[in-house]
Write a sequence for this structure.
């Protein structure tokens, strides 16, 4: 039977409805060509020696990126699925947890916990600011002095994608450990782009996804588990079956997963990890910081005030308020016409700001090109702004001298 030409690989590549984009949303991020090609090979049996070899490479690479000697498990899932996995393996019905939301994704973590019947107390942080370390330590001291059961865990967003804010994780963790609570760290948009030393800093659970700084397509939820969390998992009584990391741990010695893995994505993750580790983690973190610094120089020059302070700024996502007289809808459409995709605000910041991701496979050349196209788009919209020279964003990005 002849193949339908509409679904051939060549047709997919040449489809004018899916042109090559400059993808600057905070995930999924650009995937390098060699990573994509490595995943395009033949499928293999996941109960075979080739998969066991792949399993060993991927887990060795992930441990280096998480900077841990402990368990790392990979599910076919989104980052949100991995957040649920962490919760159901650590807690029992009615447990109290302290949530530290500083944006939309911190709120999501708390909402998942509530859906499973946990008692969630939020210590709110205004959007655009990082968690107040002293306030967290004080709340934990108050909790320890209280009459009831202590917080069993603290939910932390390491890198808040909705606001471009990085939490001071090394400063937060000592008080949490002293309190006896587990630290569950959402590092979906941070791991691989920002330095996160799981073992050295004393993180109990760190969660990420494949589609951010790990420059792999979406579809893999990854959870690293320290010894205190592993012990808690033996006591936890929340419902779990597919997410039960004990089943994964039981198979780890065989180099297999209990259920069918996303084999092609494993190959792509393998290629991406090898690329990251060949560059060296310090160099990878420095490259992300350089892109963030460049973005933070370019946006204000074009009239877009930054949402966050330098002290709170993420190395992987930059958020800026819209320039005066510029609507996100119009700007986004103008950029789309030039092959660029950006993200808007979420929650209370919807329609008031823009966000770009600069992580994973995105290069410095890509970022400079974006700011040139931003200037071009603003000019096309007639939105140059009083006192703003053209091309303001491109000139400021190049003047930063980091890319």
């Amino acid at each position: 039977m002849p193949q339908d030409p509409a679904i051939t690989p060549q047709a997919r590549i040449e489809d004018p409805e899916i042109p090559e984009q400059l993808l600057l949303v905070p995930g999924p991020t650009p995937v390098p060509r060699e990573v994509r090609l490595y995943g395009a090979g033949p499928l293999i049996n996941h109960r075979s020696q080739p998969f066991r070899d792949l399993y060993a490479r991927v887990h060795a690479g992930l441990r280096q990126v998480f900077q841990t000697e402990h368990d790392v498990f990979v599910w076919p899932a989104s980052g949100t699925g991995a957040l649920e996995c962490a919760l159901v393996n650590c807690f029992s019905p009615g447990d109290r947890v302290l949530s530290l939301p500083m944006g939309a994704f911190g709120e999501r973590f708390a909402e998942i916990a509530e859906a499973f019947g946990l008692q969630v107390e939020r210590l709110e942080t205004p959007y655009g600011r990082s968690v107040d370390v002293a306030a967290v330590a004080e709340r934990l001291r108050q909790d320890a002095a209280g009459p009831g059961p202590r917080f069993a865990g603290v939910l932390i967003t390491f890198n808040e994608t909705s606001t471009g804010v990085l939490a001071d994780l090394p400063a937060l963790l000592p008080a949490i450990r002293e309190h006896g609570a587990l630290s569950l760290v959402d590092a979906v948009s941070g791991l691989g782009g920002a330095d996160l030393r799981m073992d050295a800093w004393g993180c109990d659970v760190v969660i990420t996804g494949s589609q951010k700084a790990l420059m792999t397509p979406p579809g893999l939820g990854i959870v690293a588990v320290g010894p205190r969390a592993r012990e808690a998992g033996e006591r936890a009584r929340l419902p779990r079956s597919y997410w039960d990391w004990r089943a994964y741990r039981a198979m780890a010695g065989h180099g297999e997963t209990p259920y069918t893995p996303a084999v092609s994505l494993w190959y792509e993750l393998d290629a991406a990890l090898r690329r990251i580790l060949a560059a060296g983690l310090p160099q990878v973190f420095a490259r992300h910081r350089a892109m963030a610094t460049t973005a933070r120089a370019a946006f204000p020059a074009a009239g877009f005030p930054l949402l966050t302070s330098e002290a709170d700024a993420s190395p992987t996502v930059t958020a800026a308020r819209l320039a005066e007289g510029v609507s996100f809808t119009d700007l986004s459409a103008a950029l789309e016409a030039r092959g660029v995709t950006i993200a808007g605000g979420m929650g209370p910041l919807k329609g008031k700001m823009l966000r770009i991701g600069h992580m994973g496979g995105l290069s410095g050349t890509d970022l400079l090109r974006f700011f040139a196209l931003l200037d071009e788009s603003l000019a096309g919209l007639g939105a140059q702004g009083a006192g703003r020279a053209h091309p303001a964003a491109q000139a400021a990005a190049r003047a930063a001298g980091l890319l």
